[in-house]
Amino acid sequence: MGSHVLWETKGLMGCSRTSSFMGGEENTPSAQRTLGFDWNEEYVEQIDKFSIEQLYKALRGDYQKVEWRRLTYNNVACPKWIFAFYLALQSRLLTNDRLATWGCVEDVHCVLCGTDGDSHNHIFFRSLFSSQVWQKVFCWQSIHGKARGWEEETTWVIAECKGKQARAEVYRMSLAATIYLIWQERNQQIFQKITRTLTSWKIRLFKRCI
């Protein structure tokens, strides 16, 4: 490179992220191993063309794409519905069975039906309340059959409701809305002691989706 300056790196040393890439204090061998590449000044001088995409992929790491990603990324539902749906797809909502493993609660029974454990699979598909809700949703969208377990339902949606067809988009939206509203109903019964009838709940769901 000779005397040619690739970047004015001195002015960028104030940024800790830039410092770690350009040979600063954080650019240690252990830090480089954590990032999975040697992104220092010597490496930058050797590359022919800088690529933001290359840097992003190096920082992100190489991970296999999850099959359900299109259920959230291509979903026209409200952001809060999608966020709750995203957490539910990863079993990250704070259900009683998760809280019990941390010693936060002792009673793990489902508040919606008072029987089985308060797990993702039970709350959203196996409880009596959620089963009745899904019957209404399926009838509204002319889908024959009944709600299955969490894994079976997501597998079916991934296979049958992909693409940009109106019917697929509406079902992905209503799926996110139903998951969100079931979770909201569960939380209202726990924290506010409010229980809504299925009829009022159905009207609430349809109004939000239309």
UniProtKB/TrEMBL annotation:
It comes from the Eukaryota. Residues 50-134 form the Reverse transcriptase zinc-binding domain. PANTHER family: REVERSE TRANSCRIPTASE ZINC-BINDING DOMAIN-CONTAINING PROTEIN (PTHR33116:SF66), REVERSE TRANSCRIPTASE ZINC-BINDING DOMAIN-CONTAINING PROTEIN-RELATED-RELATED (PTHR33116). This is Reverse transcriptase zinc-binding domain-containing protein. The lineage of its organism: Eukaryota, Viridiplantae, Streptophyta, Embryophyta, Tracheophyta.
